């Protein structure tokens, strides 16, 4: 149980504070409710570009990293389809340094032709290194395009093409900043060795002067129901064949999400999971294999990905995976296996509540998703999933007409 208090400033900034006096540190997490799904189809990659631009300096802090390092802190950021997160962790007595830096770039980020040119180069190089020049690096471009046709999840977080960032102009970037990086479109969470009243005073000192903006209402298109399997085979410069088998799933807030998440754990989480144990260790078909859910705010995907051992054909690998999926649909999971998954979930939960950074980030995520109280309420939802629930969802979801298959074949 993570206890916290919630405060909403007059400018709309949501502030969540958790006291943890078992650490000398404090974590500050600023989540902006903007991700790649909020981009235009001809201007993709902007949310990821801002992950970099936000470190280019602001009006009163021309160098973001130096004052934070002088305060004994470190920082980082990441972008998703649904939101962008920036965080700092530092000695608790230096909390004000992080709040000053975050408030200054929320109020007056320095966006110039020079900063855009510098960060554009970084982002384009990252695109080339991770997507164009790395084996299997363009997998999410193909999977997104195969599984989504209306919703903006049809392009990956990094963007459709590097040309969209190469062609970005300062006016476009400033408009994106003014549109989304406002206090009333953000959640600020603080966790660590602080007193709530003192921390709130500092938040009000540094953020109350940041004006609210007119955050646009989202009107995202609903993805039509999939009616036929999607299939794509790519000849590419890859060392071994690889399989990506994915299935459409409900949104993160859908009641079935918990069952689907546990199904993915049974299939591919860790060395005792079914796919790893049976297809990698026992049958020697794969050199690596796992499964995960994207957990998107809107309906997303469950993905199984594996690299085949030498001499194993993609058809053999796919048949083996489908055999495991059919077993989940036809035979109920044993109580022993279900308990093992539940215990793993509980241990993961306990670990996540040890780190102040994890707690700050989870509070921000759940507040943006719906409300931070879900962070504590969802445990009961996971533990209530039955073997019958797992079998029913497996029957409903693991169907060819709800699937997409991407196969890489060495050129």
Provide the fold topology.
Layout (H helix, E strand, L loop, with lengths): L4 E4 L5 E6 L5 E8 L13 H8 L11 H6 L3 E6 L4 E8 L3 H14 L4 H20 L6 H9 L14 H5 L3 H11 L5 E7 L3 H12 L22 E7 L5 E7 L8 H12 L5 H9 L3 E8 L7 E8 L5 H17 L4 H18 L3 H14 L4 H10 L3 H11 L5 E8 L1
Parallel strand pairs: 2-6, 7-11
Antiparallel strand pairs: 1-2, 3-5, 3-6, 4-5, 8-10, 8-11, 9-10
Helix pairs in contact: 1-4, 3-8, 9-15, 11-15
Top keywords for this entry?
411 residues, alpha+beta, Cytochrome Bc1 Complex, Chain A, domain 1, six-stranded mixed β-sheet, five-stranded mixed β-sheet, 11 strands, 43% helix, 19% strand
Strand order of the largest sheet: 1-2-6-3-5-4
CATH architecture of the largest domain: 2-Layer Sandwich
Q: Please identify the top-level CATH class of the largest domain.
A: Alpha Beta
β-strand number: 11
- The proportion of residues in beta strands is 15-25%
Instruction: Give the terminus-to-terminus CA distance.
Output: 52 Å
Q: Give the name of the CATH superfamily of the largest domain.
A: Metalloenzyme, LuxS/M16 peptidase-like
Put simply, the count of helices is 15
